[in-house]
Design goal:
This protein is of the alpha+beta class and 227 residues long. The chain has helices at residues 9-13, 26-29, 32-40, 75-81, 125-133, 150-153; strands at residues 4-5, 24-25, 85-86, 88-94, 97-103, 106-110, 115-121, 135-140, 168-170, 176-178, 183-195, 198-210, 218-219. It is 17% helix and 32% strand.
Length: 227
Amino acid sequence: RQHKIEVDPCLRQGGIIPETAPPVHLQDVLTPPSQELFLNGPRRPVRVPRHESNYRPKTPLQGPQMTPKDAQPTPLAQALGRIPCGLFLATTQGPNGPMGFIASFVQQMGFEPPTIAIAVGKDRDHLEAIRASGRFGLSLLDKPSSALMGRFFGKLAEGETPFDGQALHTTSANSTVFTDALAWFDCKLTGEHETGDHFVVFGVVEEAAQTHEGDPMVHLRADGLSY
């Protein structure tokens, strides 16, 4: 019994395998021990090296500049990724207590009154909670406080929240912020603006504090079109 390997036409078109290359019968080129293993051993999938000529994205692209996760970022994505941003824990009061997420699309937008804008993905439950409570808090992270992000990444045990066991501060307006962060801000929601896949919410800073000396974390992305 011979096992014939059929060559994918894409590989021939891409120049990886010449058009004139004949079919290969592995049984003819294997030594007896390897031949026996080939004929009777377990079958495992073979990983073919990626090549642009035979690569096909699994899902449609989301826009003219978007790239699949395993492809190189487009020039636009690379350029956007060089825009520096901070790392924050955004918090608000939900129906069952404080809730929060890691935020990086955050920027001061004015001096008088001091205004901060934060972009929140449309698919996040936090967006409706911010609208309902009319407030949001921001805890600015530095290297010593960066471990606070950990509980917002992984899956927690049933009944646990990312706030359990953390040093928290409740502001005069009942917002929850992290006292181990480099600084925190309590903001009153003043408006929002829709922009593609996010809503930008604006808040006037009504209370804030720097908790210790240090420099904030600065985040850069390899692909500026994804988190």
